[in-house]
Design a protein that fits this description.
The structure is a single chain. This protein is of the alpha/beta class. About 40% of the residues lie in helices and about 25% in strands. It has helices at about 10-15, 20-30, 45-60, 75-85, 95-105, 155-170, 190-195, 225-245, 255-265, 280-285, 305-310, 315-320, 325-340, 390-409; strands at about 1-10, 35-40, 60-65, 90, 120, 125, 135-140, 145-150, 175-185, 205-210, 215-225, 250, 270-275, 295-300, 345-350, 365-370, 380-385. It has a six-stranded mixed sheet, sandwiched between helices. The chain has a five-stranded mixed sheet with strand order 14-13-15-16-17, sandwiched between helices. It has a four-stranded antiparallel sheet with strand order 10-11-9-12. The longest helix has 21 residues, at about 390-409. The radius of gyration is 27 Å and the shape is elongated.
Protein backbone atom coordinates (compact mmCIF):
# COMPACT_ATOMS: atom_id res chain seq x y z
CA UNK A 1 0.00 0.00 0.00
CA UNK A 2 1.20 3.53 -0.68
CA UNK A 3 0.11 7.03 0.24
CA UNK A 4 0.52 10.65 -0.82
CA UNK A 5 1.07 13.20 1.96
CA UNK A 6 -0.08 16.79 1.53
CA UNK A 7 0.63 19.57 4.04
CA UNK A 8 -1.66 22.58 3.64
CA UNK A 9 -0.60 26.07 4.65
CA UNK A 10 0.74 29.15 2.88
CA UNK A 11 3.24 29.56 5.72
CA UNK A 12 4.80 26.21 4.76
CA UNK A 13 5.23 27.19 1.13
CA UNK A 14 6.73 30.55 2.14
CA UNK A 15 9.27 28.82 4.37
CA UNK A 16 7.95 30.49 7.53
CA UNK A 17 7.24 27.10 9.15
CA UNK A 18 8.78 23.66 8.77
CA UNK A 19 6.55 20.80 7.66
CA UNK A 20 6.94 18.77 10.84
CA UNK A 21 3.55 17.13 10.34
CA UNK A 22 4.56 15.76 6.95
CA UNK A 23 7.82 14.41 8.37
CA UNK A 24 5.97 12.70 11.21
CA UNK A 25 3.32 11.20 8.92
CA UNK A 26 5.91 9.74 6.55
CA UNK A 27 7.77 8.09 9.43
CA UNK A 28 4.55 6.80 10.96
CA UNK A 29 3.31 5.45 7.64
CA UNK A 30 6.59 3.59 7.20
CA UNK A 31 6.12 2.05 10.65
CA UNK A 32 2.79 0.71 9.42
CA UNK A 33 4.29 -0.68 6.20
CA UNK A 34 2.80 2.08 4.02
CA UNK A 35 5.19 3.70 1.55
CA UNK A 36 4.92 7.39 0.72
CA UNK A 37 4.99 7.79 -3.06
CA UNK A 38 5.17 11.59 -2.86
CA UNK A 39 4.69 14.51 -0.52
CA UNK A 40 3.86 18.14 -1.17
CA UNK A 41 3.25 21.46 0.50
CA UNK A 42 0.55 23.72 -0.88
CA UNK A 43 -0.79 27.15 -0.06
CA UNK A 44 -4.32 27.75 1.23
CA UNK A 45 -5.87 27.74 -2.23
CA UNK A 46 -8.87 25.38 -2.73
CA UNK A 47 -8.18 24.89 -6.43
CA UNK A 48 -4.52 23.98 -5.92
CA UNK A 49 -5.30 21.71 -2.99
CA UNK A 50 -8.02 19.96 -4.97
CA UNK A 51 -5.68 19.43 -7.91
CA UNK A 52 -3.13 17.70 -5.69
CA UNK A 53 -5.81 15.55 -4.07
CA UNK A 54 -6.93 14.39 -7.51
CA UNK A 55 -3.34 13.63 -8.46
CA UNK A 56 -2.90 11.68 -5.22
CA UNK A 57 -5.98 9.59 -5.96
CA UNK A 58 -4.40 8.67 -9.27
CA UNK A 59 -1.04 7.76 -7.76
CA UNK A 60 -1.77 6.22 -4.36
CA UNK A 61 -4.20 4.13 -2.33
CA UNK A 62 -4.53 6.91 0.26
CA UNK A 63 -4.21 10.68 0.27
CA UNK A 64 -3.51 12.20 3.67
CA UNK A 65 -3.82 15.94 4.23
CA UNK A 66 -2.91 17.94 7.32
CA UNK A 67 -3.86 21.54 7.97
CA UNK A 68 -6.60 23.94 6.93
CA UNK A 69 -9.45 22.57 9.06
CA UNK A 70 -9.64 25.42 11.57
CA UNK A 71 -12.35 28.09 11.97
CA UNK A 72 -10.61 31.01 10.22
CA UNK A 73 -11.15 32.38 6.74
CA UNK A 74 -7.88 30.95 5.41
CA UNK A 75 -8.78 27.40 6.49
CA UNK A 76 -9.97 26.07 3.13
CA UNK A 77 -9.27 22.35 3.11
CA UNK A 78 -12.99 21.50 3.39
CA UNK A 79 -13.80 23.51 0.26
CA UNK A 80 -10.86 21.89 -1.53
CA UNK A 81 -12.07 18.38 -0.67
CA UNK A 82 -15.52 19.22 -1.96
CA UNK A 83 -13.96 20.30 -5.27
CA UNK A 84 -11.70 17.28 -5.51
CA UNK A 85 -14.46 14.79 -4.69
CA UNK A 86 -17.12 16.64 -6.71
CA UNK A 87 -19.36 16.61 -3.65
CA UNK A 88 -21.08 19.69 -2.19
CA UNK A 89 -20.27 20.86 1.31
CA UNK A 90 -22.98 20.04 3.80
CA UNK A 91 -23.26 21.22 7.40
CA UNK A 92 -23.82 18.48 9.96
CA UNK A 93 -26.19 19.83 12.67
CA UNK A 94 -25.15 17.15 15.14
CA UNK A 95 -21.46 18.07 14.76
CA UNK A 96 -22.31 21.76 15.07
CA UNK A 97 -24.02 21.03 18.39
CA UNK A 98 -21.06 18.94 19.53
CA UNK A 99 -18.65 21.79 18.84
CA UNK A 100 -20.80 24.30 20.73
CA UNK A 101 -21.14 21.89 23.67
CA UNK A 102 -17.38 21.39 23.74
CA UNK A 103 -16.76 25.12 24.08
CA UNK A 104 -19.50 25.46 26.70
CA UNK A 105 -17.98 22.67 28.77
CA UNK A 106 -14.71 24.60 28.80
CA UNK A 107 -16.43 27.79 29.94
CA UNK A 108 -16.05 29.43 26.55
CA UNK A 109 -18.38 30.60 23.80
CA UNK A 110 -18.02 29.22 20.30
CA UNK A 111 -17.29 31.99 17.81
CA UNK A 112 -19.16 32.45 14.56
CA UNK A 113 -16.33 30.85 12.59
CA UNK A 114 -16.49 27.65 14.61
CA UNK A 115 -19.63 26.60 12.77
CA UNK A 116 -17.69 25.94 9.55
CA UNK A 117 -15.90 23.11 11.32
CA UNK A 118 -19.17 21.18 11.03
CA UNK A 119 -18.99 21.31 7.21
CA UNK A 120 -17.91 18.27 5.22
CA UNK A 121 -18.28 16.99 1.65
CA UNK A 122 -21.49 15.07 1.15
CA UNK A 123 -20.95 11.37 1.80
CA UNK A 124 -17.78 11.86 3.87
CA UNK A 125 -17.38 10.66 7.46
CA UNK A 126 -15.99 12.37 10.53
CA UNK A 127 -12.74 11.55 12.28
CA UNK A 128 -13.15 12.26 15.99
CA UNK A 129 -10.73 14.74 17.55
CA UNK A 130 -9.99 13.66 21.15
CA UNK A 131 -7.74 16.68 21.76
CA UNK A 132 -9.26 19.74 20.03
CA UNK A 133 -12.39 21.10 18.41
CA UNK A 134 -11.78 20.52 14.69
CA UNK A 135 -12.93 17.07 13.52
CA UNK A 136 -11.10 15.35 10.69
CA UNK A 137 -12.71 14.17 7.46
CA UNK A 138 -12.55 10.75 5.82
CA UNK A 139 -13.89 9.91 2.37
CA UNK A 140 -13.64 6.93 0.04
CA UNK A 141 -13.48 7.08 -3.75
CA UNK A 142 -13.16 3.94 -5.87
CA UNK A 143 -11.67 2.01 -2.99
CA UNK A 144 -9.17 4.73 -2.11
CA UNK A 145 -9.03 6.82 1.06
CA UNK A 146 -8.89 10.58 1.43
CA UNK A 147 -8.05 11.68 4.96
CA UNK A 148 -7.94 15.28 6.20
CA UNK A 149 -6.51 16.02 9.65
CA UNK A 150 -5.96 19.30 11.55
CA UNK A 151 -2.60 21.01 11.45
CA UNK A 152 -2.10 21.17 15.22
CA UNK A 153 0.53 18.44 15.74
CA UNK A 154 -0.91 16.99 18.95
CA UNK A 155 -4.38 16.73 17.42
CA UNK A 156 -3.14 15.34 14.11
CA UNK A 157 -1.04 12.62 15.74
CA UNK A 158 -3.73 11.49 18.16
CA UNK A 159 -6.35 11.31 15.42
CA UNK A 160 -4.06 9.47 13.03
CA UNK A 161 -3.09 6.80 15.54
CA UNK A 162 -6.60 6.36 16.90
CA UNK A 163 -8.70 6.42 13.75
CA UNK A 164 -6.57 6.38 10.58
CA UNK A 165 -3.78 3.89 11.31
CA UNK A 166 -6.18 0.93 11.81
CA UNK A 167 -7.78 1.62 8.42
CA UNK A 168 -4.42 1.76 6.66
CA UNK A 169 -3.01 -1.31 8.39
CA UNK A 170 -5.94 -3.38 7.17
CA UNK A 171 -4.91 -2.66 3.58
CA UNK A 172 -1.19 -3.30 3.94
CA UNK A 173 0.03 -6.38 2.13
CA UNK A 174 3.65 -6.25 3.24
CA UNK A 175 5.82 -4.90 6.02
CA UNK A 176 8.71 -2.45 6.02
CA UNK A 177 11.68 -2.34 8.40
CA UNK A 178 14.24 0.44 8.44
CA UNK A 179 17.51 1.27 10.14
CA UNK A 180 20.30 3.79 9.68
CA UNK A 181 24.04 3.24 9.99
CA UNK A 182 26.05 6.35 10.82
CA UNK A 183 29.69 6.55 9.71
CA UNK A 184 32.47 9.01 10.57
CA UNK A 185 36.00 9.59 9.37
CA UNK A 186 35.39 8.42 5.80
CA UNK A 187 34.18 10.19 2.64
CA UNK A 188 30.98 9.11 0.94
CA UNK A 189 32.89 7.58 -2.00
CA UNK A 190 34.92 5.33 0.30
CA UNK A 191 31.82 4.07 2.11
CA UNK A 192 30.05 3.44 -1.19
CA UNK A 193 32.97 1.43 -2.57
CA UNK A 194 33.15 -0.73 0.55
CA UNK A 195 29.50 -1.78 0.60
CA UNK A 196 28.19 -1.17 -2.92
CA UNK A 197 27.80 -4.86 -3.78
CA UNK A 198 25.55 -5.33 -0.74
CA UNK A 199 22.95 -2.95 -2.16
CA UNK A 200 21.49 -5.85 -4.16
CA UNK A 201 20.50 -7.89 -1.07
CA UNK A 202 17.07 -9.45 -1.59
CA UNK A 203 14.11 -7.28 -0.64
CA UNK A 204 16.25 -4.35 0.48
CA UNK A 205 17.05 -0.83 -0.59
CA UNK A 206 20.03 1.31 0.45
CA UNK A 207 20.39 5.08 0.24
CA UNK A 208 23.71 6.75 1.01
CA UNK A 209 23.78 10.35 2.23
CA UNK A 210 26.72 12.60 3.13
CA UNK A 211 26.44 15.27 5.80
CA UNK A 212 29.00 17.60 7.40
CA UNK A 213 31.71 15.12 8.34
CA UNK A 214 29.52 12.04 8.54
CA UNK A 215 27.88 9.60 6.14
CA UNK A 216 24.53 7.84 6.58
CA UNK A 217 23.42 4.52 5.10
CA UNK A 218 19.62 4.40 5.14
CA UNK A 219 18.56 0.75 4.96
CA UNK A 220 15.04 -0.43 4.10
CA UNK A 221 13.73 -3.98 3.85
CA UNK A 222 10.35 -5.20 2.64
CA UNK A 223 8.72 -8.56 3.24
CA UNK A 224 5.36 -10.24 3.70
CA UNK A 225 5.55 -10.06 7.50
CA UNK A 226 7.30 -7.78 10.03
CA UNK A 227 9.66 -10.48 11.32
CA UNK A 228 11.07 -11.23 7.87
CA UNK A 229 11.43 -7.53 7.04
CA UNK A 230 13.34 -6.97 10.29
CA UNK A 231 15.52 -10.03 9.65
CA UNK A 232 16.46 -8.74 6.22
CA UNK A 233 17.35 -5.22 7.35
CA UNK A 234 19.32 -6.51 10.35
CA UNK A 235 21.26 -8.94 8.14
CA UNK A 236 22.14 -6.14 5.73
CA UNK A 237 23.20 -3.85 8.58
CA UNK A 238 25.40 -6.60 10.06
CA UNK A 239 27.08 -7.22 6.70
CA UNK A 240 27.82 -3.53 6.27
CA UNK A 241 29.17 -3.21 9.81
CA UNK A 242 31.53 -6.12 9.08
CA UNK A 243 32.89 -4.19 6.07
CA UNK A 244 33.13 -0.79 7.75
CA UNK A 245 34.24 -1.76 11.24
CA UNK A 246 35.01 1.16 13.56
CA UNK A 247 33.95 3.63 10.90
CA UNK A 248 30.35 2.95 12.03
CA UNK A 249 29.82 5.06 15.12
CA UNK A 250 26.11 4.55 15.66
CA UNK A 251 22.64 3.78 14.37
CA UNK A 252 19.33 5.59 14.16
CA UNK A 253 19.58 9.08 15.61
CA UNK A 254 22.92 8.60 17.37
CA UNK A 255 25.22 11.62 17.27
CA UNK A 256 28.99 11.64 17.46
CA UNK A 257 28.88 13.79 20.58
CA UNK A 258 26.50 11.43 22.36
CA UNK A 259 28.58 8.40 21.41
CA UNK A 260 31.72 10.15 22.70
CA UNK A 261 29.90 10.94 25.91
CA UNK A 262 28.90 7.31 26.43
CA UNK A 263 32.48 6.17 25.86
CA UNK A 264 33.80 8.78 28.31
CA UNK A 265 31.34 7.61 30.96
CA UNK A 266 32.28 3.99 30.35
CA UNK A 267 35.99 4.74 30.77
CA UNK A 268 35.64 7.38 33.46
CA UNK A 269 37.37 9.89 31.19
CA UNK A 270 37.00 13.65 30.81
CA UNK A 271 37.57 15.91 27.81
CA UNK A 272 38.21 19.61 27.18
CA UNK A 273 38.72 21.69 24.05
CA UNK A 274 40.53 24.72 22.68
CA UNK A 275 39.08 25.86 19.38
CA UNK A 276 39.87 28.62 16.96
CA UNK A 277 38.05 28.47 13.61
CA UNK A 278 35.05 26.58 15.08
CA UNK A 279 34.41 29.40 17.56
CA UNK A 280 32.67 27.31 20.23
CA UNK A 281 30.89 24.76 18.03
CA UNK A 282 32.81 21.89 19.62
CA UNK A 283 31.71 22.91 23.10
CA UNK A 284 28.15 23.42 21.87
CA UNK A 285 28.05 19.92 20.34
CA UNK A 286 29.28 18.34 23.55
CA UNK A 287 26.92 20.28 25.81
CA UNK A 288 23.98 19.37 23.58
CA UNK A 289 24.28 15.91 25.17
CA UNK A 290 22.26 15.63 28.39
CA UNK A 291 24.47 14.90 31.39
CA UNK A 292 27.64 16.06 29.64
CA UNK A 293 28.81 17.81 32.81
CA UNK A 294 29.92 14.36 34.03
CA UNK A 295 32.65 14.14 31.36
CA UNK A 296 33.02 17.49 29.58
CA UNK A 297 35.21 19.93 31.49
CA UNK A 298 34.97 22.99 29.24
CA UNK A 299 36.38 24.67 26.13
CA UNK A 300 38.41 27.74 25.29
CA UNK A 301 37.58 29.82 22.22
CA UNK A 302 41.02 31.05 21.18
CA UNK A 303 40.35 33.03 18.02
CA UNK A 304 43.07 35.68 18.17
CA UNK A 305 46.71 34.59 18.26
CA UNK A 306 47.47 36.44 21.50
CA UNK A 307 44.51 34.66 23.11
CA UNK A 308 45.93 31.31 21.98
CA UNK A 309 49.03 32.28 23.90
CA UNK A 310 47.46 33.83 27.00
CA UNK A 311 44.65 31.29 27.54
CA UNK A 312 45.88 28.03 26.03
CA UNK A 313 49.60 28.59 26.54
CA UNK A 314 50.51 28.26 22.87
CA UNK A 315 54.01 29.66 22.36
CA UNK A 316 54.13 32.85 20.32
CA UNK A 317 57.36 31.53 18.78
CA UNK A 318 55.47 28.39 17.67
CA UNK A 319 52.83 30.50 15.97
CA UNK A 320 55.51 32.63 14.34
CA UNK A 321 57.41 29.59 13.07
CA UNK A 322 54.49 27.51 11.76
CA UNK A 323 51.54 29.84 11.50
CA UNK A 324 48.32 29.74 13.54
CA UNK A 325 46.85 27.17 11.14
CA UNK A 326 49.27 24.29 11.54
CA UNK A 327 49.63 20.91 13.19
CA UNK A 328 52.04 22.15 15.89
CA UNK A 329 49.56 24.85 16.95
CA UNK A 330 46.65 22.41 16.91
CA UNK A 331 48.64 20.07 19.14
CA UNK A 332 49.57 22.94 21.45
CA UNK A 333 45.90 23.96 21.69
CA UNK A 334 44.93 20.41 22.60
CA UNK A 335 47.66 20.21 25.23
CA UNK A 336 46.63 23.59 26.62
CA UNK A 337 42.99 22.54 26.91
CA UNK A 338 43.95 19.36 28.71
CA UNK A 339 46.21 21.27 31.11
CA UNK A 340 43.92 24.25 31.80
CA UNK A 341 40.86 22.14 32.53
CA UNK A 342 42.60 19.18 34.12
CA UNK A 343 41.04 16.78 31.65
CA UNK A 344 42.16 13.34 30.50
CA UNK A 345 41.91 14.36 26.85
CA UNK A 346 42.30 17.68 25.10
CA UNK A 347 41.07 18.58 21.61
CA UNK A 348 42.51 21.44 19.56
CA UNK A 349 41.09 22.88 16.34
CA UNK A 350 42.54 25.56 14.07
CA UNK A 351 41.85 26.31 10.43
CA UNK A 352 40.82 28.64 7.62
CA UNK A 353 37.03 28.51 7.40
CA UNK A 354 36.77 31.28 4.78
CA UNK A 355 35.47 32.76 2.67
CA UNK A 356 38.61 34.92 3.03
CA UNK A 357 41.95 34.40 4.76
CA UNK A 358 43.29 31.60 2.61
CA UNK A 359 46.61 31.45 0.77
CA UNK A 360 48.29 29.22 -1.80
CA UNK A 361 49.97 27.31 1.00
CA UNK A 362 46.90 27.19 3.23
CA UNK A 363 43.75 27.64 1.14
CA UNK A 364 40.26 28.05 2.54
CA UNK A 365 39.19 24.70 3.95
CA UNK A 366 42.57 23.91 5.53
CA UNK A 367 41.94 22.56 9.04
CA UNK A 368 44.20 20.96 11.65
CA UNK A 369 42.67 18.96 14.50
CA UNK A 370 44.68 17.41 17.32
CA UNK A 371 44.10 15.18 20.32
CA UNK A 372 46.31 15.32 23.40
CA UNK A 373 46.23 12.35 25.80
CA UNK A 374 49.45 12.93 27.72
CA UNK A 375 51.33 10.73 25.28
CA UNK A 376 51.99 10.82 21.57
CA UNK A 377 48.48 12.08 20.83
CA UNK A 378 47.02 12.25 17.37
CA UNK A 379 46.55 14.87 14.66
CA UNK A 380 44.58 15.14 11.42
CA UNK A 381 45.13 17.59 8.56
CA UNK A 382 42.22 18.15 6.17
CA UNK A 383 41.35 20.41 3.29
CA UNK A 384 37.71 20.61 2.27
CA UNK A 385 35.71 22.57 -0.27
CA UNK A 386 32.51 24.25 0.82
CA UNK A 387 31.18 27.29 2.58
CA UNK A 388 32.20 28.48 6.03
CA UNK A 389 29.49 26.69 8.02
CA UNK A 390 30.19 23.34 6.36
CA UNK A 391 33.93 23.57 7.02
CA UNK A 392 33.37 24.44 10.68
CA UNK A 393 30.91 21.59 11.22
CA UNK A 394 33.22 19.11 9.53
CA UNK A 395 36.07 20.21 11.77
CA UNK A 396 33.96 19.46 14.85
CA UNK A 397 33.05 16.04 13.44
CA UNK A 398 36.72 15.23 12.85
CA UNK A 399 37.61 16.24 16.41
CA UNK A 400 34.85 14.14 17.92
CA UNK A 401 35.72 11.14 15.76
CA UNK A 402 39.40 11.46 16.68
CA UNK A 403 38.45 11.22 20.35
CA UNK A 404 35.94 8.41 19.70
CA UNK A 405 38.58 6.23 18.05
CA UNK A 406 41.07 6.92 20.83
CA UNK A 407 38.50 5.93 23.45
CA UNK A 408 37.86 2.67 21.60
CA UNK A 409 41.54 1.69 21.79
Amino acid sequence: MNAAVLAVGSELVAGLRQDGNGDWLIRRLADLGVETCWRARVEDDPGKIAGLVRRGLGDAAAVILTGGLGPTEDDRTREALALALDAPLARDPAMAETIVAMFTARGRTAGAGQAKQADRPSGAAWIANPVGSAPGILAERDGKLVVALPGVPEEMRAMFDRSVAPRLTAGVGRSIARTTLRIAGRPESYVDERVRDLYAAEGTETTILASSGTVELLLTARAADPEEARRRVDALADAMRARLGRDVFGTGNDTLAAVVGSLCLRRGATVAGAESCTGGLLGAALTDVPGSSAWFRGALVCYANDVKTSLAGVSADLIEAHGAVSEPVARALAAGARRVFGADFGLGITGVAGPTGGSLEKPVGTVHVALDDGGAGRAVHSNWPGERGVIRRRAVAVALDLLRRRLLD
